[in-house]
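Figure S4 source data
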Amino acid sequence: MPARSSAPGSAFLVGEHAVVYDEPALLLAVDRRATVAVEDADEDDLPDSAYVREAVERTRLYADETTPVRVEVSSDIPVGAGLGSSAAVSVATLHAVSRQFGAPMEPQEVADEAYAVERAVQGKASPADTYTSATGGYVVVDGDERRTVDAPDARFVVGYDGGSAPTGEMVDGVARLVDRNPVASDIVSAVGDLSHDAVESLESGDLEVVAALMDMNQGLLDALGVSSSSLSRMVWSARDAGASAKLTGAGGAGCVLAYPATDEAQEAVAETAKEAFVVSPAEGVRSE
């Protein structure tokens, strides 16, 4: 029987891009998942994915194992759209391959190895998505500190415009802006301040304050140049329906996150999105 593992996508409540500069970020694992099945083979049979290939090689080093494997990936997470699809695939691959090799990784080990996979493939990355996918729930990433947060379950609307943007290119664009403009560096620091406030509010159970901080974060992301017309249309559709909303992830295209997940907010976002759906905090990586 093949080893089968799944891992959730992730969304930023506050803090994307700034987290690359060691500012804090607040995320949640979302209940859309990537599933990976692994079995022994006569020779490697891997998907055309740099993340899968890097994850398999890192697991071989971890387990001191050279057996060829066949890897199959399925996912209902939009690709390159700000919901941590590559992180979920990396996490699920590491978990499944390590189990197939008889050296199963614990979630914290998976998170560390998946972060290394993302750095190898993207060049510059943060541990936010990979840690969130491995551990599940609400997560704070603040420099070297990574922890889960006990907070009320909640429902969020995700709007997806059908597009995608390469994470590495979006991160590099912000890096160039920060290098040449001191104001951009101040904006990154301001995002970090919002994240601190959002963590405190979430820990006290005040999601209304978190929602207001999401709106402010969107304004700062606009200033960094990572939003787009399609993302802005979805954001304002949600706001016109009484919700708070922002893009999630690297930006450029992809997904927005809105709270609260009222029927009115979902219907409004659906009018300007290719797809609109509701998510809740999800369990981390698991065996299937």
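Figure S5 source data
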Amino acid sequence: MKKQLTAITLSLGLLSATYTNVLSENAFAQQQEQVLSFSDIPESYWAFKEIQYLKDNGIVEALEGNNFMPNEVATRGKTARMLVKALKLDTNVGEVRKFDDLKSTHPDFDYIQTAVKANIFSGKDDGTFGADDPLTRAQMAKVIVNAFNLQGYSNKDFKDIPKSDWAYSFTSILRHSGVTTGYEDNTFKPNNPNSRAQLSAFIYRALTNEQVDVIPTTDYKKMSLEQLRETYGDYKILYRKIDEEKGIDEIVKIDMVERLYNYLLSRPNTETTPEEYLKQHNQGSLSEMGQFMDDKYPYYDVFVIGEDTFADHPETQWLKTNYGTTPIRQLKLFPDKYYYLTFDYQNFVNNILPTRPNSEDGVLIDIQLKSKHFPIYTKANITTDEFATKSYKVNQIDMIDGYSLYKNFGNVELEASRLVIEVNGHTLSLTNGDKQATLDGNTIQLSVSPEIQNGTMYVPVLEVSNKLGLYTRSINEFFRIEVSNQIIR
């Protein structure tokens, strides 16, 4: 009986051990599967194979947690790291070359020095390396050709890279080697930055000699975020949000193409086309932004919808027709005061909101006196910047960070206690605490003195702008001032 019990006990023990081993193997397999794949790179991703290959070979690594972050811009330092790992180079080389902006504590220092020693990178003409700067496609062509010693020239040129361009030979070799064929319109776009996914694909092809198809792919479900932008445009919404009581002063960006990209990733079987998705969300966003402007302007101020200003958007006519003149509403001037006005939407869009300049060199700055953020309107683009702080008043005169404003129109230098501005052929020299200024060599008198606070010179914006021959427009009821180098409507 005792022997039987012992046998049963042994059997159960072996069974338990076997079961435990099976569980351990299954857990290990699951753990390995998790380790082998990045959380944000599904198998349906256009560069899954390339990124996975580099990961398996220890060439790429996650940026945050287990996320590869494929749409992040590839920097020069991280590119050096990837290429050195791909070539399995010894990184114990010390400081091969001293760069003014590269410290030994930089995480990519050893890889950069190794890449320099291997003649993959050479640094910049000004003595810097720019480890955290984006790597352009032209620079990428050069370092990949250097790293893998690629040779031979293509008999077909990219139409946006003439033979006189420094990158011509590198892009021609890259094309001949089958690492790239460029875009469908036979351009290479040499000045565009690379994403981490794009760079991974290029390095993979150089390593494996696998030929590449024309990019972007015509299958929008397999496109990268960059390819969707190239194909469907950079559709975004930008608006300024202010809440003085809560201390909120910020620019909010809604990236509709990124939303499209995430939508396609999460719904690979969708029948909705990018055109349908963007059109549907375009109409919804326009209506929502119109309601924002109607209810909360100027505390919600929409700069950009798609690639247009709010006023210039082709569908804003629909809003003007449907909203017309709204009932009298309360507009909060200060935390404890209210002010009533009739909000005429047609007049608001036609005459109040800023529009893009007509000329190629035209610039318009829309200053919101309650915010440090401001949009910069040109004929080709709409960007944003910020002052050191928002404006303030001296004797009821609005004072603005002069350097941040006038650098958009010409050359500006802050020298100790002086601000020198060169705009429209005029040179204006302003001195801290002095009403006397010098304009084109002549002494002039300002109504208030410029003031330096925390290294920033604040100037009477309307007066200084007019002295420089710039055009200005004040919209007092909405706390706005426009400054432009062309006539404002």
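The longest strand covers residues 236-243. Confidence is low (pLDDT under 50) at residues 1-35, 213-217, 324-342.
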